[in-house]
């Protein structure tokens, strides 16, 4: 398993004072006593949902306390990298302040029978937010889900507005959590991007997309979101190119989508796009027109495809301003020889209006929800653009 549950009987020590701080824990079930004074004095008792053992991991010091199972306990193990990698990415001033805070907290820990500082311990407990603990737990569970292929890939149709035939798909990830149900891609992809898991998740998605492309007509493409971590990896594009070459697939059939947040740094985004073009991949601007993306990005960055955000599409019939904005995007994109995909099309009237505006492709529930590879292959004979 990618995450580890540890089990201890009542009275069993989890770690001792003075030992190396090689991991932290979240209590899943049961309770744990924290001890000082050579394991003689209990200074605090922790219960399910609480974190312990993190101080030594943060400042890379030995254990300043001991931990003993008060009852039979189940613990979720948090590896040092899950904590220290996030700390490394923070501002150096924040890192220094955390170091100072930890030293002061250690100095205030009761020693050899001194009075316990309940106010301090209560304050420390309040600082450790439950949302943070839930994030650690979810991260560990995501690692397991990826390794056991519990993260599924589905594909939403992208339709040629002139022929009404499927021209391609967007690959989307779905995580079906055994307890929480379907976890939104926004939540777990964001979590994956904070760690190296986005590389693993991405590799899984690309493998499934390449497998599907190998079974579809050569005119059909698949769009996939890529992250900054993937594009910054020296191995990413060469590896992807080789995988496509092994299957005899034209790289232009795999369109790489860059999200709006990746366009903040124009120079960096231009470098990424250039690398993709050198490897013969087409690049899409995802969710165009919102947040950081705008006319400057369209003029300065050599995109091949522009995906108009559904915010504009869903009110295009009732909002004259949005109609004007979409018309402007279409006009400029045509002059720059950029293909257009309208996202979030939900009915025939939206489809017809965007078709009349000369938008190339549409995506949304009007054409169909995201479906699995077996479902796509079952209907490929009658659905795809020739």
From TrEMBL:
Gene Ontology MF terms: cyclic-guanylate-specific phosphodiesterase activity
Cited Pfam families: cNMP_binding, EAL
PROSITE patterns in the cross-refs: CNMP_BINDING_3, EAL
Limits of the Cyclic nucleotide-binding domain: 1-104
SUPFAM superfamilies linked: cAMP-binding domain-like (SSF51206), EAL domain-like (SSF141868)
Organism superkingdom: Bacteria
InterPro entries: cNMP-bd_dom, cNMP-bd_dom_sf, Cyclic-di-GMP_PDE-like, EAL_dom, EAL_sf, RmlC-like_jellyroll
Residue ranges of coiled coil: none
Domain EAL: 135-384
Record protein name field: EAL domain-containing protein (Putative c-di-GMP-specific phosphodiesterase class I)
Organism: Marinicella pacifica
